[in-house]
User: Fold these one by one.
Assistant:
Number 1:
Amino acid sequence: MKENRNILLISDLVGMGTISSTAMAPILAYMGFSTCNLPTSLVSNNFGYGRYAMLDTTSYLRQTFPIWEELGFGFAAVATGFIPSDEQAALISRFCAAQAAGGAKIFVDPVMADLGKMYDGLPLSIVGYMRKMLGVADLCYPNYTEACFLVDAPYKEDGVSAEEARKMLDGIRAFGAKSVLITSIKVEGKASVAGYNAADGGYFTLNYDEQPLFFSGSGDVFSAILIGHIMKGEGLLPSTRRAVDSMCKLIRLNKDAGDPYKGIPVEKYLTVL
């Protein structure tokens, strides 16, 4: 029987720039996977510009899931990102649970905030939607700001202690996530990714040299690299290390980019992954 190499990306589709699914698909394709897309919304441009148009696709999702069930579509993995409503979270989480029962791995990126605040125009109610998604996650990877919102912890610009990081990881696990990463977090003063690996019950912290640059969609690129290595059979710790190192390299290569809100043009740099 032919191996299932299909990975479904459920997130927003952004018209301007290499962000969200348009950043993830080329990376996963280069790594040998076939990607399918299910947009949760159509967004004109990155939220960071301050003004954007957004078309909610809830009715489209409501029609799509039963058709896919009837046709017997199945995926090796499902990766979720931006979800704009409670109804979508309910629809998507039920679909993910059904796919998980068939052997799919579920990856959840609770896209909603960064740098201590929600993305422009997003309501605080989105935190509840994302908590609902954690219940179906084999692995979730909020950034530090998102983790603070998820567990109702104060955002500390100077970072947290190792004990505080572990408490945040446990708080996220309490919503049902199996393995957890918190990205872009300072632990004991060092730029880090803090993690819990359900496979061995171990906690870990990976340090890296922080790059003084910002690019929209960096989390999406990190996600794709991480998922690709995990789906190739590599463990969480080495997969996270590979994703972190690749991201640092991509950011350095794009240090002179003119508009960081357009993201990283990943197609130009696939060979460095």
Number 2:
Amino acid sequence: MALFAAEGAEARALREALGLEPSAGTHRGVFAGHEVVLVEAGVGKVAAASAVTYAQARFEPKMAIWAGVAGALNPRLHALDVLIAHDAVQWDVDITAFGRKPGELASGERFVEADAELSTGLYRAALALNLPVHWGRVASGDRFLADPSEAQRLREVFAADAVEMEGAAALWTAGRLGLPMALVRTISDGAGDEATVNFEEFLEAASRRLGELLARFLHSNR
């Protein structure tokens, strides 16, 4: 099992929840009978794609989960809610000058699907913990979104429920490598004009919730 997190706080919470041995950027151990490697990828889509490629080549995992926090676009989502992504889109890809739709890649892909079996397992684990959990779409871009009008535009154009900076690129790369991957996000803030303040306030608590969820998921799949 390969786990990925971008932020240091996210990775630390997962490492502690699963009892992994700390090391420089890549943490390993055994939890609930699973050999687990946790890669601290760094922020952004290039970092995400690079981390997934590295992990697949170095460790050959059978399945993977990208975990982290996200800003809410859907007004039904609140801080510390869990969002399991059914798919994700790179909102800042724009080749509409060539007749493509916003977010559509040159390959023709637009909404990149997460692995259904892994995603369902995570959803069930969240329910077992009585966590507020939702299915949804994630929008990924290489810019922290803190503008309410732009957040509203993403909601309208992509029907996205949350925004972050890695998930769609990670899913796309995993798909190309034949690696089943799920994408789970804990809501840390609303993607509005106070997002930078709320992000720091909720990051630690949101990350701990992710650790609790992944521990339950791995226990349930022994």
Number 3:
Amino acid sequence: MPSFLWYDDIINLNREMCIMQLSDTTIQILKNFATINPNIVVKTGKVLETISVAKNILGRVEVDEEFTQEFGIYDLNVFLNVLGLVDQPNLKFQDGYVLIGDSTGRSKIKYYFCAPSLLTAPTKEIKMPETDISFTLDNDTFSKIKRAASALDKTELIITGKTNIVNLSVGEDGNETTNTFSIDVDGKSKVDKYRLIYNISNLKFLPGTYQVDISSKLISKFTNSNENLCYWIALEKNSTYGV
């Protein structure tokens, strides 16, 4: 009997010594996810997901860290601010909360989790329909689009084009005399006639180059070229394809 007690003590000690540090990349992703939804449910494993309250934006990433328990964070920005209170934050997960310590072990923060059932989180995996239009969106091009939207005070990104050219235009759908900015990128489409519209405020992804796949079902997927990171973004209902 004593040997079993000794073994249990070692297991419990190892659990207590299990400390996680979040990489800078993971923290940047969490900051980005907080712009999509202020809360998040972290499930066991290496995958982090978030979905907007309107359920028109979903983000998914596989990180280096592996989480061994499920927990909910009600205000992700507050949690990230708490991490910034200490240098090299060390996370020690407990039932119902996490202890966040600094590199010296002198400072410690006790942060309580929220019940996942109270939060908005993805409940099923998105099955992307067949791709009808595709192109590559690099960071420089997207930066120009965002600057143009700010300068022109426009909220819509309108995508038109032909078989091998995709035109990205910042403007106002239905207003032919509005000021616009447009840029062409190489791409592919199954038809020459389409007018697809995004609300630019929904394009909330980290800087980088993305492979963009759009379905005529008005759902799109943005896949980061360097990270295992994807966003699914719904198009506006007044988008048209093939008519």
